[in-house]
Amino acid sequence: MKQTKALFIIVLILSIASVSGAINIIYVDVNGPNDPGSGSYADPFRRIQNAIDDANTGDTVEIRPGVYTGAGNFDLDPNGKSITIRSNDPNNPEIIAQTIIDPNQAGRGFYFWNEEDANCIIWGLTIRNASTVTGYNGAGIYCDNSRPTIRNCVIKDGYAKGSGGGICCDSNNTTIINCTITGNTADYYGGGISCIFCAPLITGCTVSGNTASREGGGIDSGLSDPNILNCVIIDNNAPLGGGINCYYPGVTRVVNCILVANSSEYSGGGVHCWTKGSVIIQNSILWANSSSDGTQLGLEQEGTASVAYCDVLGGQTDVYDPCGLLVWDSGNINADPCFVSFEPNDNPGLWDFHLQSKYGRWDSNVQTWVMDSNMSVCIDAGDPNSDWTGEPWPNGRRVNMGSFGGTNQASKNGNPADFDINGKVDFRDFALLADKWMSNGNFIEDLNLDGVVEFEDLKIFAENWLWQK
After folding, report:
1. Does residue 394 lie in a domain region?
2. pLDDT at position 360 over 60
3. Which of 15, 92, 307, 438 has a CA-to-CA distance to 229 between 20 and 30 Å?
4. Which CATH number does the domain housing residue 265 bear?
5. pLDDT for the residue numbered 382
6. CATH number at residue 456
7. Residues 420, 322 within the same domain
8. Do both 306 and 449 map to the same domain?
């Protein structure tokens, strides 16, 4: 009897835990059968704000494809809740493109101002045609003293009377991951993204075709310490800092980025740093930017920059540095990066900044690896101390320059059977294969990637025997 009672209690506890751990989803569908709806799967809310208001901490607001406009579908306010607001397939670009928040210039997309933290997540949505009707900053998304996570979103064609046509991060540490910020405009600073008194993480993003009337066409950093990693920053425009503008105080870190075809009227086509602002640029490619002074990089009014392991068109001589505060560090080159597709006069939508490789580069159009006749000098040319382990094998155990460096789309280098990367497949490589024989795990000696080093890998190794680079 006691055992039966104990078993019942255990089952009850597990049942309660299972129920409490379940995700509560509140549904939104602009074409729902009822207005306003109840938020259930069969009777979704028609307006996004109704679903947000109905949500509690830990809940998910799931928005079905459609164009959401009018009252209740802009100036969206999570009101301090740790909730996820997403499309119904937030990793699918087609669904993201079909799930659209369109204020139609009547207001912002989202307004965070109640100290929302990183557990408040916006995921897999398109926000277009937003505007700062009230206030000045942050048309698409305004993060005021809040630090939400913004992931896999497209933010385009927004207009800010002040700063941040796409996103404004004000007094916070917002995280922006794998977003596309394009075609936005600001009358002051940061056509794409404006950073004010903050330290945001901006990673894996494309910032393109944005315009600011004063500074920072793509990204503006004022009194801030943003980390900009693995980003593509292209075709942006501002009088100062076409791609990125940095203003004192604060240090902007630009690592493994592409800054191409940005333009400024006065200084810093790619990057502009002034009034004692500071920028650190590493493992990046600055190419085909334009400006009156400092086409790739312009420093003014005691602005400082450290550049290391970068490919910079024109090299150090093409940096505007009247105060002599540039640190031109190790590993910089001035050589054609051999992008897969780039022609300044072409449609930017056709540009592809993967690096050409004889040993394999990722083709996003067909979602597979292809071989090129050329080999980019930017492959295995990044800082030797940078983490290269996210790159696919074979590689030179050194990170690539550019936005795909350090990622699973980094262009390859060498033969997969050249385990010791000495440029040939010989007995030393065979010894390394033998050392892992019949081992299970993630090893480079597992040439067929089936999780174990065995005869199929030996067969591939034999096919590459005595290869030389």
Report:
1. no
2. yes
3. 92
4. 2.160.20.10
5. 98
6. 1.10.1330.10
7. no
8. no
When pLDDT is averaged across residues 192-201 and rounded to a whole number, the result is 98
Report whether pLDDT(91) > 70: yes
Number of domains present in the structure of the chain = 2
Predicted TM-score of the model (pTM): 0.94
What is the pLDDT averaged over residues 104-127?
A: 98
> What 3 state SS string does the chain have?
CHHHHHHHHHHHHHHHHHHHHCCCEEEECCCCCCCCCCCCCCCCECCHHHHHHHCCCCCEEEECCEEECCCCCCCECCCCCCCEEEECCCCCHHHHHHEEECCCCCCCCEEECCCCCCCCEEECCEEECCECCCCCCCCCEEEECCCCEEECCEEECCEECCCCCCEEEECCCCEEECCEEECCEECCECCCEEEECCCCEEECCEEECCEECCECCCEEEECCCCEEECCEEECCEEEECCCEEEECCCEEEEECCEEECCEEEEECCCEEEECCCEEEEECCEEECCECCECCCEEEECCCEEEEECCEECCHHHHEECCCCCEEECCCCECCCCCEEECCCCCCHHHCEEEECCCCCEEECCCCEEECCCCCCCCCCCCCCCCCCCCCCCCCCCCCCCCCCCCCCCCCCCCCCCCCCCCCECCHHHHHHHHHCCCCECCCCCCCCCCCECCHHHHHHHHHCCCCEC
Do both 286 and 146 map to the same domain?
yes
Q: Which of 20-24, 139-143, 185-189, 297-301 has the lowest mean pLDDT?
A: 20-24
Residue where one domain finishes, among candidates 306, 328, 350: 328
Residue 18 lies in a domain: no
pLDDT at 23: 82
Domain end call among 265, 299, 328: 328
